[in-house]
Structure to design on (1000 residues):
């Protein structure tokens, strides 16, 4: 209802501005006038089951000092970013808290759209938070967001078919070939569609081969030997007979469904698949997990960090309340609730030790282990361009030619980092 | 014309007509069918639903998002149509009836605009509307809609106006009617069908727009249905909103179907006269 | 005396004409002319909203960047291909549909009514219908054609985009052509028939020549319209697998990438391309733009 009241009020205000009326009502008055007192903190966050309950709890905690209104963003990460970016670029002050995919922090911080965390707020967020997720919320040594939940991919496999999970990429391909020769389900399902999911796999494999795509400071395109090995690994999978037929079209949920339909022996995916599998007893019995296989045997379990950070908009008119709301939305209790009810891994280490986590989260140790050696995606304000280019150049994975593709990546990524290139 | 009664010829035409009907209706029926499918049967790939449900329609009207978009769509399209038709009528009357300098230039300019690549305007309009505070408002969409609807309105209307026997106006005046009476009693009834037809065509045009709608809006304050459709959320992070998108798609197709059913003759007349005889 | 009055009347008529046209002309100019100039100005700058500090005037650097970029030319090729193929198919099918609507002896009203549905339906709605029809999880057409995920295969996706475009615009094409068809005198056809002309001869020798102006106008309209293709691609593939059009790419650079400099450069280039297309049609083929002859031909 709050939103319904607000729409016309805001439009009216804009109209007056447009007309250049000298006596424009102060934006503050106009916005508060349309509400029945109190401060509303508008949170923009992606679709997450049960997040509304977390919001409700924080509203209770706030005890009337402010009210958190949850606005759900579209499903696709690109669409979420597009919506927020467009409003921020237009100087919209109606957004207070923004749910940022971990890869957007640099861009939003560099453009001056999100407020820096300082003093006590900063200390509160940093205390007890895992290093990997915390790094995603920083840009140029300043903290711009609070990690809400993290994510790492694991290798999920059929316990009935695979007695001992593979540790390296090539071992996994060999096992699939072996299963195939015995006419058993042998498909390896992976997010290979032309989108961010493919970039995640490429980044994971590159890190698992000890390589880098982009220099640490985010200014130079490296695409070193490790990255070339990762390209070869992607190609090996895509051209193997055990590759899924819909590999070049598969996103997270397609991968999960393929596994649940019983056609796949392996899937590389986020932990949500475990919670989803519980609804299907046949699958729940068979699904097992292991650390993400690496190219280099010493790097097993290196995987890209995903997840969401919460940031406060620089245009927000209720910053103190917004910071407080964020702290509540991501505190240990909220994170535990979300982990158990929505399957999203916490960013606060102590939550993993909570006894209540044991049953719904049996793979918590594997996740925690991986988080400690996780690969952070390249941090750069031009990440959107970098990601678009990588997924375009790597699509479809079967057509990768490691050396040539690497060369192309180097040239085009450098342009993207300088924000000079053209987006495909 | 005796051939018309031969059964063979009739059968042949019937067959051809059926092909046309199938061609035009299949995609529409498909989205209609999807909108009535239950979540479980959504992926059964059957053209006709095996289990019927109204749940998708209940769902889209149970949140604020779609009803707001619908209100935006209707409001924006109606206001843009009204203004475009009024301005277009004035200009078309002048073009059809009066002689004045710049007439050819006006016709040329509106022709240019009719063919203008809209995407070329998105960048500058985004910037201009951002600085004027028009971004994500109704006027922010209404203005470009009027602009691109005006050429259509002017062509269609001037074609209609040329057909009106204006001598009647003179005759009425000779019979003692004042100019106002002559206009109201004689010209207005003759011109009304043309204006009405134009209004339908312009409305369809505004109703249809997608590019401006996604580029110049960012919230439910002004987002229209075509844009809202592409931003629908599923009930969970990993579920496609196929059913609800289909239901919403059906809802915004209803006005089009009604127009077509009731005003087929007018729409055909409007499109053919405006386009070629102009 | 009377001469003076006449010129007074003429003046009043001129004034009235200008006043009546002024509002329409002003709106059209305000919304197009100023943005176009502004767009040209932006295209000469390095201006990325994410790097606001680096804004500077760079002359034609953006044009060099875009025109030497392979993604731009890929999109340009895709746009041209879709335009050429879909307009060609539409012309043939549109002509057939026009003949059916004009000459059918049964169910004329029904045929004309349903044929208007594709014309009136919201493009995005139709695009969703096609997308779900070809989706490998929900679609009835994928199995029918034994395809797996046709929307992610470049050739198949381009085919589906063309199909969606053709389906939507054939009725519009047919209506434009039907207007021309109505101008063909019946007695001319009857005379040809008496002279022993076959139906095909009547079509090519009598109908087509009379309809030439209508055909050229329809082609002009549809070509320029098809070149702007955006909605269908946005919904069907979002431009993945190199299926993006120039409009799609402009949108990506501008709205997704927030690079106003590059986005504006692409806008200007599309504008130039469309202007050239229109010029070729009018000058080379002699298409008479509707209205440009003030209806004198009638």
């Amino acid at each position: 209802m709050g939103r319904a009241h607000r729409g016309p009020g805001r439009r009216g205000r804009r109209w007056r501005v447009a007309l250049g009326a000298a006596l424009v009502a102060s934006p503050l008055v106009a916005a508060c006038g349309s509400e029945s007192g109190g401060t509303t903190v508008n949170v923009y966050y992606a679709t997450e089951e049960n997040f509304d309950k977390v919001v409700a709890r924080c509203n209770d905690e706030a005890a009337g000092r402010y009210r958190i209104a949850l606005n759900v963003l579209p499903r696709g990460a690109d669409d979420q970013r597009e919506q927020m970016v467009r409003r921020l670029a237009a100087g919209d002050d109606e957004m207070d808290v923004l749910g940022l995919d971990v890869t957007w922090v640099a861009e939003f911080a560099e453009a001056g759209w999100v407020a820096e965390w300082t003093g006590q707020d900063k200390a509160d967020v940093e205390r007890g938070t895992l290093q990997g997720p915390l790094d995603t919320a920083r840009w140029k040594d300043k903290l711009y967001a609070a990690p809400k939940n993290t994510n790492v991919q694991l290798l999920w496999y059929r316990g009935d078919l695979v007695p001992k999970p593979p540790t390296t990429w090539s071992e996994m391909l060999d096992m699939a070939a072996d299963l195939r020769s015995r006419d058993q389900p042998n498909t390896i399902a992976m997010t290979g569609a032309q989108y961010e999911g493919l970039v995640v796999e490429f980044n994971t494999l590159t890190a698992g081969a000890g390589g880098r795509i982009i220099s640490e400071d985010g200014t130079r395109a490296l695409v070193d030997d490790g990255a070339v090995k990762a390209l070869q690994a992607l190609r090996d999978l895509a051209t193997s007979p055990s590759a899924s037929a819909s590999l070049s079209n598969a996103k997270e949920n397609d991968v999960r469904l393929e596994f649940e339909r019983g056609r796949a022996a392996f899937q590389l995916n986020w932990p949500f698949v475990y919670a989803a599998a519980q609804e299907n007893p046949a699958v729940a019995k068979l699904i097992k997990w292991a650390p993400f296989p690496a190219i280099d045997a010493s790097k097993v379990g290196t995987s890209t960090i995903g997840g969401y950070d919460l940031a406060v908009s620089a245009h927000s008119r209720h910053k103190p309340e917004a910071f407080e709301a964020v702290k509540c939305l991501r505190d240990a209790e909220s994170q535990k609730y979300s982990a158990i009810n929505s399957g999203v891994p916490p960013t606060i280490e102590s939550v993993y030790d909570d006894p209540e986590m044991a049953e719904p989260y049996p793979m918590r140790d594997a996740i925690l282990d991986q988080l400690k050696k996780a690969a952070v995606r390249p941090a750069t304000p031009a990440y959107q361009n970098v990601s678009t280019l990588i997924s375009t150049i790597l699509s479809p994975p079967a057509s990768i030619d490691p050396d040539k593709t690497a060369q192309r990546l180097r040239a085009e990524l450098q342009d993207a980092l300088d924000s000079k290139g053209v987006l495909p | 014309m005796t051939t018309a009664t031969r059964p063979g010829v009739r059968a042949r035409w019937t067959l051809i007509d059926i092909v046309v009907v199938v061609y035009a209706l299949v995609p529409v029926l498909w989205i209609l069918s999807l909108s009535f499918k239950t979540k479980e049967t959504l992926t059964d790939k059957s053209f006709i639903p095996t289990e019927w449900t109204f749940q998708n329609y209940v769902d889209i009207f149970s949140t604020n998002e779609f009803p707001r978009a619908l209100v935006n769509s209707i409001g924006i399209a109606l206001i843009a149509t009204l203004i475009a038709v009024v301005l277009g009528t004035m200009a078309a009357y002048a073009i059809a009836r009066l002689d004045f300098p710049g007439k050819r230039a006006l016709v040329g300019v509106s022709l240019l605009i009719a063919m203008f690549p809209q995407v070329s305007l998105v960048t500058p309009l985004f910037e201009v509307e951002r600085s004027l505070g028009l971004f994500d408002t109704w006027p922010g969409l209404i203005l470009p809609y009027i602009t691109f609807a005006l050429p259509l309105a002017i062509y269609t209307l001037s074609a209609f106006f040329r057909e009106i026997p204006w001598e009647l106006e003179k005759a009425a005046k000779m019979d003692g009617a004042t100019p106002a009476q002559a206009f109201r009693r004689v010209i207005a009834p003759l011109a009304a069908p043309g204006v009405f037809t134009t209004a339908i065509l312009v409305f369809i045009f505004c109703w249809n727009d997608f590019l401006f709608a996604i580029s110049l809006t960012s919230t439910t304050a002004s987002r229209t249905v075509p844009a809202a459709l592409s931003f629908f959320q599923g009930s969970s992070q990993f579920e496609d909103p196929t059913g609800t998108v289909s239901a919403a798609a059906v809802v915004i197709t209803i006005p089009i179907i009604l127009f077509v059913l009731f005003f087929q003759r007018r729409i055909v007349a409007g499109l053919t006269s405006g386009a070629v005889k102009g | 005396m009377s001469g003076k009055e006449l010129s007074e009347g003429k003046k009043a008529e001129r004034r009235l004409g200008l006043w009546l046209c002024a509002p329409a002309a002003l709106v059209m100019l305000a919304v197009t002319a100023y943005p176009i100039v502004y767009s040209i100005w932006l295209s000469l700058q390095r201006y990325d909203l994410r790097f606001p500090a680096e804004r500077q005037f760079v002359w034609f650097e953006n044009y060099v960047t875009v025109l030497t970029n392979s993604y731009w030319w890929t999109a340009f090729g895709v746009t041209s291909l879709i335009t050429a193929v879909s307009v060609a198919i539409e012309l043939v099918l549109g002509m057939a549909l026009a003949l059916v609507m004009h000459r059918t002896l049964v169910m004329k009203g029904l045929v004309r009514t349903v044929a208007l549905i594709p014309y009136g339906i919201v493009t995005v709605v139709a695009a969703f219908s096609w997308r779900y029809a070809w989706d490998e999880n929900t679609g009835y057409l994928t199995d029918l054609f034994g395809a797996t995920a046709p929307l992610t295969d470049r050739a198949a996706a381009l085919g589906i985009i063309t199909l969606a475009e053709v389906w939507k615009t054939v009725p519009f094409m047919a209506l434009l052509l039907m207007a021309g068809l109505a101008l063909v005198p019946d007695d001319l056809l009857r005379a040809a028939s008496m002279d022993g002309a076959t139906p095909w001869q009547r079509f090519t020798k009598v109908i087509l020549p009379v309809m030439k102006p209508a055909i050229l106008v329809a082609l002009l309209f549809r070509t320029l319209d098809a070149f702007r293709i955006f909605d269908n691609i946005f919904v069907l593939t979002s431009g993945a697998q190199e299926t993006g059009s120039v409009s799609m790419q402009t949108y990506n650079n501008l709205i997704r990438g927030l690079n106003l400099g590059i986005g504006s450069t692409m806008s200007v280039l599309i504008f130039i391309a469309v202007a050239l297309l229109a010029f070729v049609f009018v000058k080379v083929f002699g298409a008479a733009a509707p209205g440009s002859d003030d209806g004198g031909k009638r």
